[in-house]
């Protein structure tokens, strides 16, 4: 069996195409156009069964894939890939390969572990947390988490994953048999009002929680998701959704009011961090309350947001993102457009490289990182590409109505 058939044999038994309409559209198109023909593509999305839909689309487009291993994975899927001859590689192994003169053409990174590589064409970074590793990049770097598409995953899917993980651990029952019923009236305290934090908060509202969000109220509206700047990492939109939270009956409290926040921690049933900032809760006033509260503590960010004073065993999943205890941390229907954008931006880098010289660049020297195709540094996805993927997801996907609700309009009848 070829690799495309192998992936399909696993995926087609589990998923319907309406769960991944954007990736399905790319796969069908790329099977004809073969944009990655002859190219080696390192894909570092977390290794789970649902992310294999992205691998399959790239393989359909002619790519020879390597799968980047950096901690977030399903061990059974890792072994499955190895058994079928797909290289599963670490950052250190890839740097060793470069020292032998073996370069990949493209890196589809996630949170920046492969940022030190020297691909022939460029990078696509999936998350905002990975942007810091690319701020001085001498290669083209598209950031998929800089527009509206990523909100589907983070605002809808991640919040859903947080509550599914709590339910898996039994925290949603409280003596009742119907999952989720026990959240009614429970006090949920969310740190962070970006896409992830707001998504958790709004999911909490839907489950009947009394929700309070702690955020930095001194941040101006210039930082919201409607402002788009592309000249530097620190000018990327922070995506504060405080107005949306208030419209949904969520209390919003300033993070600098330590006395008020400490009191909320002590009274909470659930506390979850989603600021994206390491040690965000390091203030002594907050640490004391975190150590004494009976609340269920969890983190939904990549970094340890609780700080070293809070033992790992005090926080669910030892401070790791809670949804990663699940077989499917985020349902495929919520990550389809993000993974599709991640891959489609790689195709755009290939198109740009070919348009400049009519052929793709040769392998660089590891010390010469200035040779690049396309505009170097951090870049935003083209709006027309995002709109195309959104349209496909709304028209052909299971969550079309949810996306429309998030965007504030009704789907066509």
Structure at a glance:
With 413 residues, this protein is of the alpha/beta class. Helix content is 37%, strand content 12%.
Topology:
Elements: H1 3-11, H2 21-33, E1 40-43, H3 52-60, E2 64-68, H4 75-83, E3 88-89, H5 91-99, E4 106-109, E5 122-125, E6 140-143, H6 149-168, E7 187-191, H7 195-206, E8 210-215, H8 242-247, E9 251-254, H9 258-267, E10 270-273, H10 284-292, E11 296-299, H11 332-357, E12 377-379, H12 383-396, H13 400-407
Parallel strand pairs: 1-2, 1-4, 2-3, 4-5, 5-6, 6-12, 7-8, 7-10, 8-9, 10-11
Helix pairs in contact: 1-3, 2-3, 2-11, 3-11, 6-7, 6-11, 9-10, 11-12, 12-13
Strand line-up across the major sheet: 3-2-1-4-5-6-12
Largest sheet: 7 strands, parallel
Indicate the radius of gyration in whole angstroms.
Answer: 21 Å
Relative strand content:
5-15%
Q: In CATH terms, what is the architecture of the largest domain?
A: 3-Layer(aba) Sandwich
Mean pLDDT: 88
- Tell me how many strands there are: 12
What CATH first level of the largest domain would be assigned?
Answer: Alpha Beta
Unreliable stretches covering 5 or more consecutive residues: 175-180, 220-239, 365-373
- Count of structural domains: 2
Considering the protein shown, what is the CATH homologous superfamily of the largest domain?
Adenosylhomocysteinase-like
Distance separating the two termini: 43 Å
* Count of runs of 4 or more consecutive helical residues: 13
Q: Kindly name the structural category.
A: alpha/beta
Write the CATH fold name of the largest domain: Rossmann fold
- The helix-strand sequence is HHEHEHEHEEEHEHEHEHEHEHEHH
